[in-house]
TrEMBL record:
Pfam families from the UniProt entry: CDP-OH_P_transf
This protein's name: CDP-alcohol phosphatidyltransferase
Phosphoprotein listed as a keyword: no
Gene Ontology cellular-component terms listed: membrane
Family affiliation: Belongs to the CDP-alcohol phosphatidyltransferase class-I family.
Organism: Enterococcus casseliflavus EC20
GO biological process, one term: phospholipid biosynthetic process
UniProt keyword annotations, A-Z: Membrane, Transferase, Transmembrane, Transmembrane helix
Gene Ontology MF terms: phosphotransferase activity, for other substituted phosphate groups
């Protein structure tokens, strides 16, 4: 029972890439997507409630999140690439994230992905992407997600630059000024 949060996280890390081999919006896609999405919501909550949080668990969760969000995003990428400006936007966000992680690695000698509120919002929106496409036009979903992802990436970069110590659980840039 003590390993349940990490088992959920590890299962998401392993299963989420299988989304790439499934037809988006198919029954199997929805089943695997739903499991991965729900496990992402539950693993951290369980770890905190059971008092089983750890640095390893937080790092594992970050990698599992990247695995899941990347798989969901790449599943829909062919449909989204019709808009060429999206390519530029994605590259800008990716470059900001890369620079942030590079600075974090040089500064802290560790992978420095943060669990800020904005990063969680982006994760939730990325994870919700298939559901959002069902209820809203793709252009609106991409505009909202892209804007929040850009602001989130910039916030993480600023936190990484300004912070003296790595705190993966820092909730926002405003905590830097306390």
């Amino acid at each position: 029972m003590n390993y349940l949060p990490n088992i959920l996280t590890t299962s998401r890390l392993i299963l989420a890439p299988l989304l790439l081999f499934l037809q988006p919006m198919s029954g199997w896609f929805w089943l695997l997507y739903s499991y991965s999405f729900l496990s992402d919501l539950v693993d951290g909550l369980l770890a905190r409630r059971m008092n089983l949080t750890s640095e390893v668990g937080a790092l594992l969760d970050s990698f599992a999140d990247v695995s899941f969000f990347l798989a969901v995003f790449l599943s829909f990428l062919p449909q989204l690439l019709a808009a060429h400006t999206l390519w530029v936007w994605l590259l800008v966000i990716a470059m900001i994230r890369f620079v942030s992680y590079l600075i974090g690695y040089v500064k802290y000698r560790s992978f420095s992905s943060l669990h800020t509120w904005l990063n969680k919002a982006v994760g939730f929106l990325l994870g919700s992407f298939p559901l959002l496409l069902v209820v809203s036009p793709a252009k609106i979903v991409v505009l909202i997600l892209g804007t929040i992802a850009t602001v989130s990436a910039l916030e993480e970069l600023l936190i990484t630059i300004l912070s003296k110590n790595l705190d993966r659980n820092q909730k926002s840039i405003f905590e830097s000024f306390k």
